[in-house]
From TrEMBL, chain A:
Keywords: Antibiotic resistance, ATP-binding, Nucleotide-binding, Transport. The lineage of its organism: Bacteria, Bacillati, Actinomycetota, Actinomycetes, Micromonosporales. GO terms for biological process: response to antibiotic. The keyword Transport applies. GO terms for molecular function: ATP binding; ATP hydrolysis activity. CDD domains: ABC_DR_subfamily_A (cd03230). It holds the Pfam family DrrA1-3_C. It comes from Actinocatenispora comari. This is Tetronasin ABC transporter ATP-binding protein. It comes from the Bacteria. InterPro entries: AAA+_ATPase (IPR003593), ABC_transporter-like_ATP-bd (IPR003439), ABC_transporter-like_CS (IPR017871), ABC_transporter_ATP-binding (IPR050763), DrrA1/2-like_C (IPR025302), P-loop_NTPase (IPR027417).
Automatic annotation (TrEMBL), chain B:
The chain crosses the membrane at residues 51-71, 115-134, 155-179, 191-212, 224-248, 268-290, 328-346, 375-396, 425-445, 465-484, 491-510, 530-554. The keyword S-adenosyl-L-methionine does not apply. The keyword Cytoplasm does not apply. Keywords: Membrane, Transmembrane, Transmembrane helix. This is ABC transporter membrane-spanning protein. Residues 1-32 are annotated as: Disordered.
């Protein structure tokens, strides 16, 4: 099998809530796969199904060529998991938790453990009770990254980390990619996924709405641009792919399809640019724009 | 962490308390503004405690009633009470356990004699838990930060916790008094005793207000206060049993209680003063500290743990042992003390039975040994209920691990669900067996005499015979966790039902078929009877079957809080 993870048509119902509604997810071996969706979209539920903690009501899932429910314990030898909300035993120290989780997985590399503790700047002697959310996350990350396994399943691993630590995390994931490990990285931050992932699946309300390489998903992204020009920016409205244009004197703001960004900038520089800010839209904005009106279309 | 003085968050504006000389009174928080929001927090505390506090008070009330009714029933005549005062009441073990037996000759004195320890432990602990829960217990996880960022003063949470704890103790006064009056004890002395008992609770309320300021963790705050309670008990026990150091009594709130002597002709009313003074002194200390420290900080440094796990902590069993060991240690001490007390009290019964009239009566009933044996059998059966409490508590911890999402990272490793569950079940069941062994061993040692070895063997057997019935409760708990996880706590309800059937079965003249529902009905009397192993085997099989059903259910269901 080429796919480390292969899930088709997953359905999971909790009482009246349909947490998963025909979700598809395919992660090729050796790739870093972004798993994107707003809060409550079903990312954690999908991961729990893949870990055999929840049983899907419908659909099929294959993990490392095994059945995640039936073969849970044997499959878990080959993967490491970082939960989205890391809860630790309050009386154990961080170092004890790292060692315990590592040994449960069959041992961890002491050199890598020490290196990761240094890089993440984590004091392993502190009791888990006293750790902040970010520090609890670091404990789980060190335990996962220091163990030798084929697949890393990370559920919003950076949500409590500061920017400095996010960078350390990004470096670690780059290293994992080089060493050929498969990574499933769930997130609701588009820029993080853009920086790290080979391919991306975007889910909403328990369904996969888009999946593909980032280049393939370019059409989804629009960049918002604010520019201060040397003269009036006439003609911008005529460029295809520019939306929501507001021009006041020499100042303009607009949204532009990322594939048309080049054309817009060419036009702006021809007028003369005094200042320019551009930022990618947040994932939520993206969803609002593309899927609020239309019913989400499922793509394979 | 050290406590640093800092500018008041509200009211004080830009004043820097760091440079100002230490103020004599905690007015740095801005006077009465420091108490803003107390009313709301009291209502919040009452809402959160609406189950816990009534249960504690209900247990205290039931204990009082059971104590006074049984005294009236068994020792209704003054002669029988005097007899007891001269025999069981005079052994060092009982005096250490319950206090001096000065007033055991009166109905009220005898009823409250055994309550001195139980009552102070109950009221002391509930006071400590209530105060800590609403102060450090909210501060540690950051909930208090949310509250204090709103319109709530520096002292509002502390004041709310103290008020609710004091209220709990005040409510206990009529409950204890009415419980005593149920056994035909006079109203005046009953209320006097209940007041003195509640004042012990006041002292521990003040103590908890202080300890909540000392440590960053609420567990440690509770632990320090409970340790002081244990020391107070020991001081009283030592002072009462050793005349050279009887002054130790005066250092202990429990000593003040036993020396108050509500049922003596002239109670020492002035002994109601020291608890009030202690409360005020402790509160002043607590408020002074609360006014000067940062939110979240403690005075004592947080203890660091090991930087790496020991060899023991390398699998699910090591983890389960680590999680259960603290609780088991506490229970072990309790069972050892209980066993020792039991054994030595039974010696007092020997003396009691040695007097002429009683001996004749006992001969008719089956001999002195029969009296002692039936007493020991009765208390062993009570121990079975207590062991069942331990089992339910430690097995529900397994469900607690699941709902707190701490089972998830373990189950995401090669550890399967059965191994994970087995780790908790094994530690709980072996722990229960261990507790009963301790109890039998110490009961045998306490009983002592020339044939200690023989006594230990007999009592060990009697104690372990209680295990199968308690294991049925373990089976029920596992079955609930596996099949109806959301209803796991119903195990407590079933245990309560079985206890009620056992305790009130005779009183309510319950049908035998109803009594048979309780597993504890089926434990045979091991001491002084012919023992049949059949019920023990059947009980064990039922327990195993229930556990197997539960584990099968656990394998098939979703893991998580839902």
């Amino acid at each position: 099998m080429d796919n480390a993870i292969s899930a088709t048509g997953l359905v999971k119902q909790f009482g009246r809530t349909r947490a998963l509604d025909g979700l598809d997810l395919h992660v090729a071996t050796g790739e870093v796969h972004g798993f994107l969706g707003p809060n409550g979209a079903g990312k954690s539920t999908t991961i729990r199904v893949l870990l055999g903690l929840l049983r899907a009501d419908e659909g099929t899932a294959t993990l490392l060529s095994g059945d995640p429910w039936r073969d849970a314990t044997t499959l878990h030898r080959r993967l490491a998991y970082v939960p989205g909300d890391v809860n630790l035993w309050p009386t154990l120290s961080g170092g004890e938790v790292i060692d315990l989780l590592g040994r449960l997985r069959g041992g961890l590399d002491p050199v890598r453990r020490k290196d990761l503790l240094d890089r993440f700047d984590l004091d392993p002697r502190k009791k888990a009770r006293t750790y902040s959310k970010g520090n609890r996350q670091k404990v789980a990350l060190v335990a996962a990254l220091a163990s030798d396994c084929e697949l890393l399943i990370l559920d919003e691993p950076t949500s409590g980390l500061d920017p400095l630590m996010e960078q350390v995390f990004a470096d670690c994931i780059q290293a994992e990619r080089k060493s050929g490990r498969t990574v499933l990285l769930s997130s609701h931050i588009l820029s993080e996924v853009e920086a790290l992932c080979d391919r991306v699946s975007i889910i909403r309300a328990g369904r996969t709405v888009e999946t593909g390489t980032l280049a393939e998903l370019r059409h989804l992204t629009r960049t918002s641009v604010t520019a201060e020009l040397a003269g009036p920016g006439d003609g911008v409205a005529a460029i295809p792919g520019v939306y929501d244009l507001v021009a006041e004197g020499n100042r303009l703001t607009c949204e532009v399809d990322t594939v048309k960004l080049d054309e817009l900038l060419r036009h702006l520089t021809s007028v003369g640019v005094r200042s320019l800010t551009s930022q990618p839209p947040t994932l939520e904005e993206l969803f609002l724009r593309h899927y609020e009106q239309d019913e989400p279309a499922v793509t394979a | 962490m050290t406590s640093t003085r800092r500018a008041p968050a509200r009211g004080g504006g830009t004043r820097t308390a760091d440079r100002a000389p230490a103020p004599a009174a905690p007015e740095s928080g801005g006077g009465q503004h420091s108490f803003v929001g107390t009313g709301t927090l009291v209502r919040l505390a009452l809402r959160r405690d609406r189950l816990m506090v009534p249960i504690w008070l209900g247990v205290l009330f039931l204990l009082t009633i059971m104590s006074s009714l049984s005294v009236k029933d068994l020792f209704g005549s003054a002669a029988s009470r005097d007899q007891l005062a001269g025999s069981a009441g005079a052994t060092p073990a009982t005096v250490a356990m319950y206090g001096p037996s000065w007033d055991v000759g009166t109905l009220g004195g005898l009823s409250t004699w055994k309550m001195n320890t139980m009552g102070t432990v109950l009221l002391g602990l509930v006071s400590i838990f209530v105060v800590t829960r609403h102060t450090r217990g909210d501060e540690e996880p950051g909930r208090l930060e949310l509250i204090r960022a709103g319109v709530a003063g520096r002292y509002s949470a502390l004041t709310a916790g103290v008020l609710v704890a004091l209220l709990t103790n005040v409510v206990s006064i009529p409950l204890v008094a009415l419980g005593l009056m149920a056994g035909s004890v006079g109203a005046g002395p009953s209320f006097g005793y209940a007041l003195a008992l509640a004042l012990v609770g006041f002292v521990f309320t003040g103590l908890a207000a202080l300890t909540a300021q000392l440590t960053e963790s609420s567990r440690a705050a509770n632990g320090i206060a409970a340790a002081v309670l244990a020391v107070a008990f020991l001081l009283r026990a030592l002072g009462d049993t050793t005349s050279q150091i009887s002054w130790l009594d005066w250092l202990s709130p429990l000593g003040w209680l036993v020396r108050f002597r509500a049922f003596a002709p002239q109670p020492h009313w002035w002994l109601l003063v020291p608890p009030v003074v202690a409360l005020l002194a402790l509160l002043v200390a607590g408020y002074l500290l609360a006014g000067r420290r940062d939110l979240g900080a403690g005075l004592l440094p947080a203890r660091l743990g090991r930087p790496a796990a020991s060899r023991l902590l390398s699998g699910p069993f090591g983890l389960a042992w680590r999680l259960h060991r603290g609780t088991l240690l506490g229970w072990s001490i309790g069972f050892a003390v209980l066993g020792a007390a039991l054994g030595s009290v039974s010696n007092g019964l020997d003396d009691f039975a040695a007097s002429k009239g009683v001996r004749d009566m006992l001969q008719a009933l089956g001999g002195q040994q029969a009296l002692v044996d039936s007493y020991l059998s009765f208390t062993m059966a009570l121990a079975a209920l207590v062991v069942a409490v331990y089992l339910v508590q430690s097995l529900l911890r397994m469900r607690g691990e699941e709902t707190a999402y701490r089972a998830e990272p373990v189950l995401a490793t090669p550890v399967g669900r059965l191994r994970w569950a087995a780790s908790h079940v094994t530690v709980a069941v072996l722990g229960a067996a261990w507790l009963l062994v301790l109890m039998g061993l110490f009961a045998g040692l306490g009983r002592g005499g020339d044939d200690v070895g023989h006594q230990i063997g007999r009592l060990l057997g009697a104690a372990l015979a209680q295990l199968p019935a308690a294991l049925v409760l373990a089976g029920i708990t596992i079955a609930l966790i596996g099949l109806l996880p959301r209803w796991s706590v119903a195990a407590w309800g079933l245990l309560g039902l079985f206890v009620a059937i056992g305790q009130f079965g005779d009183l309510l003249k319950l049908d035998q078929r109803v009594r048979d529902v309780s597993p504890f009905t089926h434990t045979p009397t091991v001491l002084g009877g012919t023992v049949s192993a059949t019920p023990l085997i059947v009980l064990s099989l039922v327990a195993i079957a229930l556990a197997a059903i539960g584990l099968l259910g656990l394998r098939r269901r979703d893991i998580g809080a839902a």
